[in-house]
Amino acid sequence: MRQLRITLLIFAFVLCGVGSSPFLLAQQRTAPWNPQALLEKAQAGIEKNPNSAFWHSQAGVAYDALGYFDLAIKETKLASALDPDDPGHQYSLFALYQRKGMLRQQREALLNALEIDGGNPLGHFELGVVLEKEGYLEESLREYHDAKRFAANVKDREYTDRRGGVYEIELVRNHADEYIARVTKLKTSKEQEK
Fold it and tell me: Of these four, 77, 91, 158, 159, which has the most CB atoms within 10 Å of its CB?
């Protein structure tokens, strides 16, 4: 079964300031979202299988929703350590750090995710955003160009990583040129100031 990552929530914060972890347990659920129930289910899953990256990631989502940032980070990092081939854990860390404005940590999480799966257009785009905020304009521009190039190679509206994680890339297609033009202008302006 293809695991759908809720990338509109994760990555919409570039434009809207909204973010969420990608591993919602019951995406097809009809019941209202109950993070406490998810936490209890995750804790029961961890008790049965302490080395389950899935249950630790679920605990991270629940802790995040309940406002326990440090516990969300701890569980998500543990999930990543238990399943280091899944870039989704790193994107979850990125989303957590993004909401706190922690640029260095965002960059590290994105670099880790892209080291696992370097073809994700959305990952490159988000890294471009972070690098731009940090003032690394040349590197940011390179990431935006990479994002655009990788997005051009995707036939659908979604990029699917090798683990089945799905990432909506319309954001990249709709805004890469705009971001490239803005950073190019900023870079030129800074060079002229020298």
Answer: 91
Q: Which of 100, 124, 114 is nearest to 175 (CA)?
A: 124
Domains defined for the chain, CATH in brackets: 7-193 (1.25.40.10)
Burial class for 43, CB neighbours closer than 10 Å (0-12, 13-18, 19+) = middle
Q: Which helix (H) or strand (E) holds 177?
A: helix 170-193
pLDDT value, residue 34: 95
CA distances to 12, 99, 134, 139, 189 from 194, in Å: 35, 34, 19, 19, 9
pLDDT score, position 33: 87
C-alpha dihedral over 149, 153, 156, 157, to 10 degrees? -10
Tokens of 28: 């097809």
From the number of C-beta atoms within 10 Å of its C-beta (0-12, 13-18, 19+), residue 50 rates as exposed
Which pLDDT score is estimated for 30? 54
pLDDT for 98-112, tens place per residue? 999 999 999 999 999
Residue 150 CB: number of other CB atoms within 10 A? Answer: 20
Residue spans of the chain under pLDDT 70 = 1-31
Q: What is the dihedral of CA 71, 73, 77, 80, to 10 degrees?
A: 110
The Cα–Cα gap between 71 and 75 comes to 6
